[in-house]
Design a protein that fits this description.
The structure holds two protein chains of two kinds.
Chain A: E1 8-13, E2 16-21, H1 26-33, E3 58-61, E4 68-69, E5 80-82, H2 86-100, H3 117-125, E6 143-144, E7 149-151, H4 161-169, E8 175-178, E9 185-188, H5 201-205, E10 211-213, E11 226-231, E12 240-246, E13 249-255, H6 268-272, E14 287-290, E15 293-296, H7 299-313, E16 317-321, H8 327-341, E17 346-347, H9 356-363, H10 373-376, E18 379-383, H11 387-390, H12 392-405, E19 408-413, E20 425-428, H13 434-445, H14 451-456, H15 461-474, E21 478-483, H16 492-505, E22 515-519, H17 525-530, E23 537-538, E24 542-543, H18 551-560, E25 565-569, H19 573-576, H20 580-589, E26 592-597, H21 602-607, E27 610-613, E28 622-625, E29 630-634, H22 647-658, H23 667-677, H24 686-689, E30 694-695, E31 728-733, H25 740-744, E32 756-759, H26 761-767, E33 774-779, E34 782-790, E35 798-802, E36 817-822
Parallel strand pairs in A: 1-5, 16-17, 16-25, 18-19, 18-21, 19-20, 21-22, 25-26, 26-27, 31-35, 32-34
Antiparallel strand pairs in A: 1-2, 3-4, 3-5, 6-7, 7-10, 8-9, 11-12, 12-13, 14-15, 14-27, 23-24, 28-29, 29-30, 31-36, 33-34, 33-36
Helix pairs in contact in A: 7-22, 8-22, 8-23, 9-16, 13-15, 13-16, 18-20
Chain B: H1 21-41, E1 67-69, H2 85-89, E2 95-101, E3 113-121, H3 130-134, E4 140-142, E5 157-158, H4 160-164
Antiparallel strand pairs in B: 1-4, 2-3, 3-5
The chains are: A alpha/beta, B alpha+beta.
The structure holds iron/sulfur cluster (4 copies) and FE2/S2 (inorganic) cluster.
One iron/sulfur cluster is lined by residues 156-162, 186, 205-208, 210-211 of chain A.
């Protein structure tokens, strides 16, 4: 459903004429446009429609005999509202007195103290005295609702916020209210731990100290901390966060509501993985390999040695750049590689380069959908990605669109999606066959027969027909949310062409409210491509003077001895690249491996000669680009821990030592250079980006985006999906919890995944495997162990394993078919 | 315009232009004698010097000296729950509280939380007593000790152990009606 048109109505609030958009709730309109605060407890626009549970917001409206709940009445033209009459005052005092009947006097020991809406409302609108001397209700004091959340049921004021979040926002349906009246309390079914990807949000939503974060428990008071706004770089969703900092330590992460990015929510990784900044496992000093073991060394020695190794290797150096790299670091790395060492072998895309023309076509500004489009489009097609794993917070946005705005959600993926139940139609295809599936959709849309393509994709041809029918009927505003997976692998260019043809068939180019939205593999993948951290492009997606090797070829060249050194900038090829075997050989052969890393992940631990400590995202400054083209700014929030140094400065110093000083004195100097050199960023500045970011594709300068070939492209017939023949197809996915930060965070460690082997009940029965059993998955002599996980929705004939888990990653196996047996 | 040095000469008057006669004589001796009268008049009051530090002036009961933290007399638990309200109230920002959670095995205070760190930087404290007023549990009070000089600034950061310890009784308290 398209965005509602905004129509202004005028109403009178406390004698003042106020203009507000029609349909807005009175409490919001009064605060935003009338500068009048109507106290609320249970209402928060971001949870959805009001429920009117607490009655804190009573106001008088002329013409209506009884007082009305300001949170539940939409503004209308000519409405006359009074918020401070004696009647209203008496009602507010009565409601607060009523709420406080059973509320304990816990403020000194309560973690909400100082930032508590109940304190604020009682202070601002309460009567100051209570007439109740009766004993209060009692519950057992804090219980663990989950390993992350403590619940103190005595403090709950039964506002329903948490329950509504669980049932209507994250839709995990875990929280419920039990019992009735004063005995009511929040719990889960059978008091199971509330473990869900977004559970932490309820600690921020609860207007009292009933639900509090356990990692933050008793850490600080609001006046002990400073809030530092920045961006979470743990996944491509790039949520806007605010760090609570005390004594140069991040103690908590909270959402910094941004409608265009995160809608005010965070996933639990973003909320709790800050702990990894302050753990002992983190690398905070430079290290060098000495006698087979990494030992701390001085900065001077490390830089000196790295410069020596690199100048020795010269043009025989390759570089892999991970998604957490900022644009500034990316640009300085290209300076180090291209201008200083004379090597073009650098890449930020795992699995191989895409033709530059296609990359431009996919990133063309007229084709980009924004995050809010997901919520207002007629239809959203989720293609070959799983939002909750790949960019968690987008999952909530899709749910919101379906629930509140009638978005038609269509899913085409190989692995069952968490969104399946909300989808109008959900189809499966064989892992790695996104290209064929997109081609089938395109063909069907063009009125050709899609049956053979659907068969090649391993999809049900009827599903393809039905999905296209849905797409056709939905309306013109269609967003395709696609995963980088579709354009990775050996047939990545064909995948991109099929996707572009599909977008063309749907008329998405220049479509307002529709378009393509990629979920890339790395946080700042988009920015890194745009500043030229690609083998075949230079800054601004211009043609590279000489094309270099892509990540796959770098690995092969290292293994073959054509390259001798490799820089791993926030990248661990054993975790990120599709083939672990190749990279084991490559790194084993490389004579110099220089890593910038925060943790001793496998490649760093086993192969790095020199390790530079990587800054954490709270220590970094620079810019990153959101997948929907929003340029955002990271700000330094805490002092760098240990001996960590600014990485942009380190990259500049390395280049200077080798003999080509990039003359970068500050990070903002580098940013300014980027804004100058990327034609479509022209006119941007750090001030302009500010705290909310700027979508470059919406600015005038976007017109200077390099021209790209127009669809339709000629497609060749995609290969046919391997048929299982007694074996199983191998599909892989990266879990939201598979990251070194999650592993290192004490509070989240319980979520760090072990390998699990997802398969359908039929396959499991055929192979005699039961749920939870240890199984081995083998191909070509390599094998991975994991726990069998039987999933009712899993398609027959396919087994899914996770990547990015040290030592047991799916990348150790070579598809397309694998053998699964009991261990 | 050229500068004319003559114009800047200022006449300095250092006393009466002429000798003063009788008036001058009075000014020279009369006023001096009047002052001396007061001086000698005080002689009968006796000596009032207090031989500090051997001798001390007793302080009033509400005198605001060095802080004390308190324990419950019966259970021995600390009264402070580490709520940080004193730190919020302190105008010179000299209190630092880091709270932690009580466990059944390790119970320090009566509430859920306790102050794992409680420090007052007495070199910054202005002895206003706001912390005492802010405390919901009467855990911190202002004592009577005012002899706080030290040779080292960092020694003036009083830790929880120092504040909890029985204060050295070195300041006499003024008795009722004194
Ligand atoms: S929820 Fe608020 S009012 Fe209630 S005890 Fe905690 S701080 Fe005090
Ligand atoms: S626990 Fe908090 S959010 Fe949930 S109903 Fe109670 S007061 Fe509301
Ligand atoms: S969704 Fe991604 S960006 Fe947002 S909080 Fe989670 S990890 Fe961070
Ligand atoms: S007496 Fe005043 S200045 Fe000293 S610690 Fe207490 S509140 Fe702070
Ligand atoms: S805020 Fe309106 S009823 Fe709760």
């Amino acid at each position: 459903m398209p965005r509602p048109l905004e129509k202004l109505v005028s109403l009178t609030i406390d004698g003042n004429e106020v203009q507000a958009p029609e349909g807005m709730m009175l409490a919001d309109a009064a605060l935003k446009y009338g500068d009048v605060e109507i106290p609320v407890f249970c209402y928060d626009a971001k949870i959805g429609p009001p429920v009117g549970a607490c009655r804190m917001c009573l106001v008088e409206i002329e013409g209506i005999p009884k007082m009305q709940a300001g949170c539940s009445v939409a503004v209308t033209d000519g409405m006359v509202v009074h918020t401070n009459t004696p009647t209203v005052k008496a009602a507010q005092e009565a409601v607060l007195e009523f709420i406080l009947i059973n509320h304990p006097l816990d403020c000194p020991v309560c973690d909400k103290g100082g930032e508590c809406p109940l304190q604020d409302n009682a202070f601002g609108w309460g009567g100051g005295l209570s007439r109740f001397i009766e004993p209060k209700r009692h519950f057992e004091k804090p219980l663990a609702l989950s390993p992350l959340i403590a619940i103190d049921r005595e403090r709950c004021i039964l506002c329903y916020r948490c329950v509504r979040f669980s049932q209507e926002v994250s839709e995990d349906d875990q929280l419920v209210l039990e019992e009735r009246g004063a005995d009511t309390f929040v719990t889960t079914f059978d008091a199971h731990p509330y473990v869900a990807p977004f559970s932490g949000n309820i600690t921020e939503l609860c207007p009292v100290g009933a639900l509090t974060s356990r990692p933050y428990r008793f850490r600080a008071r609001p006046w002990d901390i400073e809030q530092a706004g920045s961006v979470c770089t743990l996944c491509p969703a790039q949520c806007n966060v605010s760090f609570s900092v005390r004594d140069e330590r991040v103690l908590r992460v909270m959402a910094r509501d941004h409608e265009g990015v995160d809608d005010g929510w965070l996933c639990d990784k973003g909320r709790f993985a800050y702990q990894a900044i302050h753990v002992d496992e983190r690398i905070t000093e430079p290290m060098m390999r000495d006698g087979g073991e990494l030992r701390p060394v001085t900065w001077d020695l490390a830089i000196e040695s790295a410069a020596k190794l690199l100048s020795h290797a010269g043009a025989n150096t390759g570089a892999l750049v991970g998604g957490e790299t900022t644009n500034e670091e990316g640009v300085l790395l290209t300076h180090l590689m291209r201008e200083t060492l004379g090597s073009n072998d650098l890449d930020s895309r795992p699995g191989g380069a895409l033709e530059l023309e296609l990359l431009r076509a996919l990133n063309a500004p007229t084709l980009q959908a924004s995050v809010p489009d997901l919520q207002y489009a007629h239809a959203v097609l989720v293609l070959d990605c799983e939002p909750v794993d790949d960019a968690p917070v987008l999952d909530l946005r899709l749910r919101k669109g379906v629930r509140h705005h009638g978005v038609k959600l269509l899913i085409g993926s190989s692995r069952p999606s968490a969104l399946d139940q909300r989808a109008a139609l959900s189809t499966r295809f064989a892992p790695g066959c996104g290209e064929a599936f997109a081609a089938a959709l395109g063909a069907e849309l063009a009125g050709q027969s899609s049956a053979s393509l659907a068969a090649a994709a391993g999809a049900d041809p009827d599903d393809v027909v039905a999905l296209v029918a849905q797409l056709r009927d939905a309306g013109e505003e269609v967003v395709i949310l696609w995963g980088e997976r579709l354009t990775a692998g050996p047939r990545r260019n064909e995948g991109a062409r099929a996707l572009l043809n599909l977008a063309d068939q749907l008329g998405l180019d220049g479509q307002d409210g529709g378009g393509l939205l990629e979920i890339p593999s790395g946080t700042n993948s988009r920015g890194l491509r745009e500043v030229g951290v690609l083998p075949n492009a230079s800054i601004g997606l211009a043609d590279a003077a000489t094309a270099g090797r892509d990540s796959q070829q770098i690995g092969e060249a290292l293994a073959a001895g054509d390259l001798s050194a490799v820089i791993l900038l926030h990248s661990d090829p054993l975790l990120d690249q599709p083939s672990s075997a190749l990279w084991q050989r490559a790194l084993g052969k490389a004579s110099a491996v220089i890593a910038h890393a925060a943790f001793l992940t496998p490649a760093v631990r086993e192969h790095a000669n020199i390790v530079f400590p990587a800054e954490s995202y709270a220590e970094k400054e620079g810019t990153v680009v959101h997948p929907d083209s929003r340029v955002q700014r990271l700000r330094r929030s805490i002092a760098r821990q240990g001996e960590t140094r600014a990485e942009w400065a380190l990259l500049a110093e390395l280049a200077a030592k080798i003999g080509n000083d990039p003359k970068a004195l500050t990070c903002s100097m580098v940013s300014a250079r980027i804004f100058e050199q990327v034609p479509f960023y022209a006119g941007l500045s750090l001030d302009l980006i500010g705290g909310v970011g700027v979508r470059w594709s919406e600015r005038e300068a976007a017109a200077s985006f390099p021209a790209a070939p127009a669809a339709p492209f000629a497609l060749d017939a995609p290969p046919v999906a391997a048929s299982p023949n007694g074996l199983l197809r191998l599909g892989s996915f990266r879990s939201i919890w598979a990251s070194p930060e999650v592993e290192a965070s004490p509070a989240l460690a319980f979520l760090h995944p072990r390998q699990r082997v997802e398969m359908s009940a039929a396959d499991a029965e055929r192979l005699g495997i039961s749920h939870g059993e240890n199984v081995t998955v083998a191909s070509n002599g390599d094998s991975v162990e994991g726990l069998a996980h039987i999933r009712a929705s899993a398609p027959d004939g396919t087994v899914f394993l996770q990547t990015s888990i040290p030592g047991e990653s799916a990348a150790l196996l070579e598809g397309p078919l694998v053998e699964v047996k009991r261990a | 315009m050229a500068w004319d040095p003559e114009k800047d000469v200022i006449e300095v008057i250092r006393g009466p232009k002429e000798a003063g006669g009788a008036g001058g004589l009075y000014r020279a001796f009369g006023e001096t004698l009047r002052g001396l009268k007061t001086t000698f008049g005080q002689l009968r009051m006796g000596v009032d010097t207090i031989q500090y530090p051997e001798e001390k002036i007793p302080v009033y009961p509400r005198f605001r000296g060095r802080h004390q933290l308190h324990r419950f007399e019966d259970s021995g638990l600390e009264k402070c729950v580490g709520c940080s309200l004193c730190a919020a109230a302190c105008p010179s920002d000299c209190i630092r509280v880091v709270a932690a959670e009580n466990t059944p095995e390790h119970r320090v205070s009566a509430g859920e939380r306790y102050a794992a760190v409680y420090e007052i930087n007495l070199s910054r404290c202005i002895f206003c007593g706001y912390c005492e007023v802010a405390c919901p549990f009467d855990a911190i009070t202002m004592g009577h000790d005012f002899e706080l000089s030290d040779a080292n600034r960092s020694d003036l950061i009083f830790t929880k152990e120092m504040l909890l310890a029985e204060p050295i009784e070195r300041t006499p308290l003024r008795a009722e009606g004194e």
